[in-house]
Amino acid sequence: MVISKKPLHFIVATLVAFLPLVTVANPTNDSTTVEHTSVTTEAKTEHHEGESKDLKTEIKEFINHHLQDSYDFHLFSYEDDAKVEHHIGFPLPVILWDNGLQLFSSSKFHHGESAAESNGNYYRLFHGKIYKVANADEQVAVDAKHHVTNEKPFDFSITKNVFMMLVVSIIMFLLFTSLAKSYAKNGGIAKGAGRFFEPIILYIRDDIAIPNIGKNYKKYMSYLLTIFFFVWFLNIFGLTPLGVNVTGNIAITAGLALITYLITTFTANKNYWGHIFWMPGVPAPMKLVLAPIELLGTIIKPFSLMIRLYANIVAGHVVLMSIIGLMFIFKNWLGSSLSFVLAFALSLLEILVAALQAYIFTMLSALYFGAANEEHYNDDAHH
Amino acid sequence: MEKLLEQFSLGLFFWMLVIFVALIFLLKKFAWKPILDAVNEREEGIKNALLSAENAKKEMQNLKSDNEKLLAEARLERDTMIKEAREIKEKMINDAKTEAQQAGEKMISQAKAAIESEKNAAMAELKAKVSSLSVEIAEKLLKDELSNSEAQTKLVEKMLGDVKLN
Q1: A200 & A307 share domain
Q2: Which intervals of the chain are annotated as region Disordered (chain A) (predicted)?
């Protein structure tokens, strides 16, 4: 470069030259005014801190609330001029098993403000869970360790997450059956929205299932396709302003991972179990050592699937919502617009992550199925 | 971890399994199987079409080479036919020539033979005529000569004189 080294010197020199303009060498406040200014700043910061703490906790609670499942489909709430909070959304059915089936609408909880009555039993919402209370006025009791002492009925409610899963299932069913039908109508060529999804289906078949599983891939295709689109669609729905966090719920990812584990276990061939309990090609004492490790590995694999999806989605939601929350904390043109740009960029990244996590879940499931279906090669390969 | 476990909702887990497993089976029956079958069928179709196009191309080439072979064969055949025809023609001409020659020669020889026999017959006839004529002449001469007895005696005497000579 022609101007090598010079820019650095130049920059340093300019910085030094401009230093007096932004800094003040002499203390501006003399001893007489120091008390006054410090008091005002203290008061200011106190006020500011108090306000921002309120806002911060509010944002934190909001994020926590968003991450959790809920009994009604809450879209947004606002305060009218009379400071009365209005919630916009719709209630979902609550199904409990408590000495018989208890079925009622979640609107009875009045957003957690009052106890719901069903067949003479009273239930109350506390931190997103339903607890049984003795009567309409009783509150949920909490012990010293913040554990709830009230009885918890078996809860099979159609919560927001269950509702969203049903919605996604219906969308998937309609979408893919219409794709299936369009083949017959158009002589083997997809039409409409299916045109977009067909290459993805083919990608899952040709680049996930076939290379990882091998010739037995056909029996796993239904599961791989379903899980990919299920996770992907739910991830995408999680990014919409509907604010559902289905795949960021540990129960959901646990369910998905459990199915992968069960399929792996029940379709595994002799070779797979042989490698777990009696690893070929190693000395006998090592075989004894390896067996429990390998057996544990079969459980760790789906467990990692569960945690990976859960953690990625939760982390994405928390970061995204925190940055959006920052806009309200900054409350100035520079900071808020900066966090808006950041939130926008992160949203784009989250869209990628939504597809990526679905891909990873499908890919790893296929990999595990492939391991369970591996044919026995010659033992030399293991040395 | 404790928070995670606390968050874990058995009801949600239950519904998730129910919905997801149902979705797998429903989609398998109504979507994935038809879609994958259709896609497979289409891929097979494309593969077959490509294969048949390749085959058709090969067939065309075969046909072309066959045609050329046929053409060459036809040409060869034509050439041989022409050659044969020419040979036949020559042979026919030759044959005709020799035949004609032979026939001519035969005719000539026959004519010669006929001429000879005619000549012989004519000669024989001539000879016979000549002899009968000469006998007649002799008879007439003798008749004339021997019309008087003197001449007869003279002749007898002469003949006798000839015999004596013998």
Answers
A1: yes
A2: 30-53
pLDDT tens per residue, range B39-55: 888 889 899 999 999 99
Domain containing residue A83: 70-155
pLDDT tens figures, B12-27: 888 889 999 999 999 9
pLDDT, tens digit (0-9, with 9 covering 90-100), for B130-150? 888 888 888 887 777 677 778
Question: What residue type is A115 in one-letter code?
Answer: A
A171 lies in the same domain as A286: yes
What distance in Å separates the CA atoms of residue A336 and residue A344, rounded to the nearest whole number? Answer: 12
Residues of A in contact with B35 (CB under 8 A): 176, 179-180, 183, 198, 201
Whole-structure pTM over 0.80, yes or no? Answer: no
Nearest by CB to B27, from A68, A172, A249: name it: A172
**Interface test with chain A among B4, B5, B9, B33, by most A beta carbons within 10 Å:** B9
DSSP string, B74-126: HHHHHHHHHHHHHHHHHHHHHHHHHHHHHHHHHHHHHHHHHHHHHHHHHHHHH
**Domain presence at residue A26:** no
A79: left (phi over 0), alpha (psi -120 to 50) or beta: beta
Last residue of a domain, one of A155, A176, A200: A155
* Inside any domain, residue B91: yes
**Taking a C-beta distance cutoff of 8 angstroms, is the pair A220, A369 a contact?**
yes
Per-residue tokens: A6: 């010079």
Question: A176, B41: Cβ pair inside 8 Å?
Answer: no
pLDDT digits (tens, 9 = 90+) for A80-116: 777 777 777 888 888 887 777 778 887 777 777 777 7
pLDDT in tens, A311-339: 999 899 888 888 888 888 888 888 888 88
Interchain proximity B16–A165, CB inside 8 Å: yes
> Closest to B35 (Cβ–Cβ): which among A157, A162, A183?
A183
Residues 6+ apart with CB under 8 A from A193: A175, A178, A179
* Contact check, Cβ <8 Å, A249/B36: no
Please list every residue in chain A whose beta carbon sits closer than 8 Å to the beta carbon of residue B42.
Answer: 183, 188-189
Q: Determine, yes or no, domain membership for B14.
A: no
Chain A residue numbers with beta carbons less than 8 Å from the beta carbon of B13 are 251-252, 254-255
Nearest to A169 among B8, B23, B41 (CB): B23
A185 and A144 together in one domain:
no
d(C-alpha A224, C-alpha A218), whole Å: 10
A171 forms beta bridges with: none
Q: Does B8 reside within a domain? A: no
- Token readout for A31 is 């001893």
* Interface predicted TM-score (ipTM) of this complex, two decimals: 0.76
Whether B144 maps to a domain, the answer reads yes
For residues A209 and A333, membership in a common domain is answered with: yes
For chain B, how many structural domains are there in total? 1
User: What separation in angstroms does the CA of A87 have from each of A105, A117, A125, A126, A165?
Assistant: 16, 21, 16, 18, 23
> Is any Cβ of chain B less than 8 angstroms from the Cβ of A253?
no
